[in-house]
Amino acid sequence: MSRRCGFILAVGALMAIAAIKARPSGKAPSSDYHEFTLTAKDSGFEPNILTVKKGEKVRLIITATDCEHEFRLDTFDINQVLQKGNPEIIEFTASKVGTFEFKCSVYCGKRHGKMKGKLVVQE
Ligand SMILES: [Cu+2]
Question: For residue 38, which of 33, 57, 62, 75 is within the disulfide window of CB 3.0 to 4.6 Å?
Fold first, then answer.
């Protein structure tokens, strides 16, 4: 009896694994975005260099972890308030080739001036 129960459990487990694997690759439907997950804190953005290809749709998911910041990327007309602990999603198309600075645009303390990063858009 106990062996049979064990067998049924094992088959059940295998079927569950098969069902998980059968899902369409687990990717979100929006996988045509080049996605980055960033944190913002007074020591800077992490990561602070983002490299994409021209024409790519870019999605940034940014979470301020210590206090409120703002993410500013003038070239693409972006200025997003980042409230502490509240991930913000920013989407845009990397339509220009070049290296573009992004920064925090609200004074957040002594290290505010160092809160900078680069978006590198390659041909
Ligand atoms: Cu700041």
Answer: 62
* Cα–Cα distance, 68 to 25 (Å, whole number): 36
How far does residue 17's CA lie from ligand 1's centre (Å)?
A: 46
| pTM for this predicted structure | 0.74
Helix (H), strand (E) counts: the chain: 1, 9
Ligand 1 centroid to 110 CA: how many Å?
A: 9
* 3-42: b (≥16 Cβ within 10 Å) or e: eeeeeeeeeeeeeeeeeeeeeeeeeeeeeeeeebebbbbb
State pLDDT tens for residues 78-106: 999 999 999 999 999 999 999 999 999 99
At 26-48, the pLDDT tens digits run 444 557 999 999 999 999 999 99
Domains of the chain by start residue, with CATH:
28-122 (2.60.40.420)
Cα(55) to centroid of ligand 1, in Å? 29
